[in-house]
Amino acid sequence: MSATFVSTQGLEDLKAELVKRKTVVRPEIAQKIGSAKELGDLSENFEYHEAKDQQGLNESRIMDLEEMIRSAVIVHDKSGGGDLSVSLGCTFVAEKDGTKRTLQIVGSSEANPLEGKISNEAPIGQAFLGRAVGDIVEIEMPAGKIAYKILEIK
């Protein structure tokens, strides 16, 4: 796995999720498996198979979280003005069809488009990287081409 770009808060969130999955979710699933075993024949025991599936998904997520934490690269919020260009950790204001929106380029594990957090790996994030105030950024989307104008880099 390659580097996981995260903010300081993002890394803390990953660590908190890991602790919860190990100390809360894992024991809850083990309890479900134990209870399901008491019901008898495991070959047709839906509760047992469901709990085992949950266990597999939880253990997989734990391994993913451990790797993301191990490979974490902290991206500090960048601020400034004037001649800056959009980069990882950068917050900026862009306008599309007369509507202004504040966006931030973040690592993929923190992306949340509804909050304006755009992944550096997504096509829209890649289109903004390296661009400056006043630039028009055109992005090809399934519904057609959209254009943003960068108004400000915070």
Task: Give the strand order, joined by hyphens, for the main sheet.
Answer: 5-4-3-7-6
One letter per element, helices H and strands E, the order comes to: EHHEEEEHEE
Q: What is the structural class?
A: alpha/beta
Distance between the termini: 31 Å
Low-confidence stretches: none
Can you tell me the number of structural domains? 2
Mean pLDDT: 88
Summed up:
The protein has 2 domains: 4-74, Orthogonal Bundle (Helix Hairpins), CATH 1.10.287; 91-153, Transcription elongation factor, GreA/GreB, C-terminal domain (Chitinase A, domain 3). The protein is built from 3 helices and 7 strands. It has helices at 8-37, 46-70, 123-128; strands at 4-6, 72-74, 91-96, 99-106, 117-119, 136-141, 144-153.
Topology of this structure?
Layout: E1 4-6, H1 8-37, H2 46-70, E2 72-74, E3 91-96, E4 99-106, E5 117-119, H3 123-128, E6 136-141, E7 144-153
Parallel strand pairs: 1-2, 4-5
Antiparallel strand pairs: 3-4, 3-7, 6-7
Helix pairs in contact: 1-2
Descriptive account of the structure:
It contains three helices and seven strands, in the order E-H-H-E-E-E-E-H-E-E. It has 154 residues and is α/β, with parallel strands linked by helices. It has two domains: 4-74, Orthogonal Bundle (Helix Hairpins), CATH 1.10.287; 91-153, Chitinase A, domain 3 (Roll). The protein has a five-stranded mixed β-sheet with strand order 5-4-3-7-6. A two-stranded parallel ribbon has the order 1-2. It is elongated and about 70 Å long. The mean pLDDT is 88.
